[in-house]
Amino acid sequence: MKKKASSREKSEFIWGWIFILPTMIGLGVLNIYPMIDTVIQSFYKTGDFGKGNVFVGLKNYEKVLGDAEVWQALWNTVKYAVVEVPFSVVIALLLAVCLNRKIKGRNIFRTIFFLPMVVAPAAIAMVWKWLYNSNFGLINNVFHINVKWISDPNLAIFSIAVIGIWSAIGYNMVLFLAGLQEVPRDYYEAASLDGANAFDQLIHITVPLISPTIFFVLVTRIIGAMQVFDLIYMMIDLNNPAWKKTESLVFLFYKYSFEQSKKGYGATVVVVLLIVILILTGIQLFGQKKWVHYE
């Protein structure tokens, strides 16, 4: 016989839903509905003056598969992610390990490394544009070189990736520091007694024990890198010779949807990006069983 819920259990159930309802409504309105609407729009062609959309089925997807600009944008995005993700994760992990020790000024260093996360993107772009300037930039003048950091088509996307690394290190470091708090100091003391050096402790103790945190950072950083837009938008001008070599898929979505009013085709581009991200995330979820330890 099913037990009747008490008045307290009913009250807790009702109040529980009251507390989570605003979050669920926000998630539905700001995330789920726009995603569904974007997928639906990808099957339409924008009508005249942005009205009266025409259903075209899979024609937008056929066009995307044969669009050289989309493939170039995908390649640009992948190159950015390949540089930004590994370096931002590894550097942040090493910094977290160093700043997890009792050193003088530890909190000050933590704050300094986290500052790029709270600085306005426009300010970041302004500073890095000055640093990268080929004529009077600080980097070229200090090292007495003449490198076109953001105007060389072969170099620009990697220069932007450096900014991405600099911006992401602080956030990744904070996550790693949180994971390191759960690692017992006894393991390091025992390893030191057995003659293990700092590198051995990092590889055989730190990395395995905070592997869930590393996995989370990897997944979120890859998603973030594949969605890069603001850095490219603010760093590269339309008359820049490296323009086509730095366009990302999200930038193409912005250009087609808001500059050219091709919302259906722009939606198709971003759906393709969603599929790519889902595939990469699925591969990571499958592969994490071999190296992520939850106990």
The top-level CATH class of the largest domain is Mainly Alpha
Total individual domains:
2
Physical arrangement of strands within the biggest beta sheet = 1-2
Low-confidence stretches: none
The CATH architecture designation of the largest domain is Orthogonal Bundle
CATH superfamily membership of the largest domain: MetI-like
In one word, what is the shape?
A: globular
Strand % is: under 5%
Helix content: over 70%
CATH topology heading of the largest domain: MetI-like fold
* Averaged pLDDT: 88
Distance between the termini: 39 Å
What is the alpha-carbon Rg in Å?
24 Å
Q: Please describe the biggest sheet, giving its number of strands, its sense, and whether it closes into a barrel.
A: 2 strands, antiparallel
Pairing-aware structural class of the strands and helices? mainly alpha
Along the chain, the helix and strand elements come as: HEEHHHHHHHHHHHH
How many strand units? 2
Distinct helical segment count: 13
Give the arrangement of secondary structure elements.
Blueprint: H1 7-41, E1 44-45, E2 54-55, H2 59-65, H3 68-99, H4 106-118, H5 121-132, H6 138-143, H7 156-180, H8 185-193, H9 198-209, H10 211-226, H11 230-235, H12 249-259, H13 263-287
Antiparallel strand pairs: 1-2
